[in-house]
Write a structure and sequence with these properties.
The structure is a homodimer of 151-residue chains. Chain A has 151 residues and is mainly alpha-helical. Helix content of chain A is 65%, strand content 8%. The structure holds a DNA duplex (30 and 30 nucleotides).
Amino acid sequence: MEGMEKSPSAAAEQAWIALLRSQQLLLARVEAALKAADLPPLAWYDVLLELSREPETELRQFEIGERVLLSKHNLSRLLDRLAAEGLVKRQACDSDGRGNVVTITKKGLQLRERMWPVYGAAIKELIEGPLSAAQIRSLGDIMQALLQNLR
Amino acid sequence: MEGMEKSPSAAAEQAWIALLRSQQLLLARVEAALKAADLPPLAWYDVLLELSREPETELRQFEIGERVLLSKHNLSRLLDRLAAEGLVKRQACDSDGRGNVVTITKKGLQLRERMWPVYGAAIKELIEGPLSAAQIRSLGDIMQALLQNLR
DNA sequence: CTGTTATAGTTGCAATTGCAACTATCACTC
DNA sequence: GAGTGATAGTTGCAATTGCAACTATAACAG
């Protein structure tokens, strides 16, 4: 009764564990690189990046939350910090009295630009270093497939 | 001057982002599955698993830390919780007066066994569901390569 | 031995996260 | 337009994490 197993195959288990570990270590490396350069954590970058895609456009808070995968209360307080640093501006939304719209400030744009070289270099080293171009493509495809499955 | 770029290629960046996102979502799914079954978080499983590989053998605290990728103070307190629940036993090490040795209890073994079906089913669904056998092999290989690079 | 440095682990404190409860507005139905 | 349920966001509180300082032992050089 092959297909009825509820446990994963050995290959899947091994891949899962390697995925878990490497992700943990990769993330730690990136965070360490940012910290070493006296820069804020990755979560700040993510939010700033989303906002800087179209710097003029206001984003609703929940839109940011969807893109960055942050729970709303969590995002609420992250934005508190970002706003306190003058990196974003949060205003009441006139078309929806419950909500806020958020825009990035000049200072926020600048910070994101300062973060990117450090972040980018880390990605380059950690991904392009050990992997061939074919592997990178393959990694991208596989991760996309995993993501599809999570919708 | 192609090779001198400090930014990652578009493919590498895309793969990185997909990796980041999928890992985040996968982990959330697994944790949610455990919680839904009234089971403790994944970190507990990891520690219990390492200890249950040879249930008779005592492990030094730092050995657990190495295998589970947990900072020492973090592990120290996680073991506090596990010990408080009677899942592990922590004793002074006689061959090294600074250290502790940790063993898993019957109750700890039983908990790990109760966790595995839930965890395993989640892995099966999340990894084997969307990926072909070849992709799973490929994923394992790629993650290994990334890990190698992190030594 | 004695002094120095490294290792194992714990603890206090601040920052972050997760959860549940709460407020306010919106959208929809009757 | 009053009532109901959903949505956007905030807040309080407890649990977890990260960091730095601390204790105690070990290991090693002279």
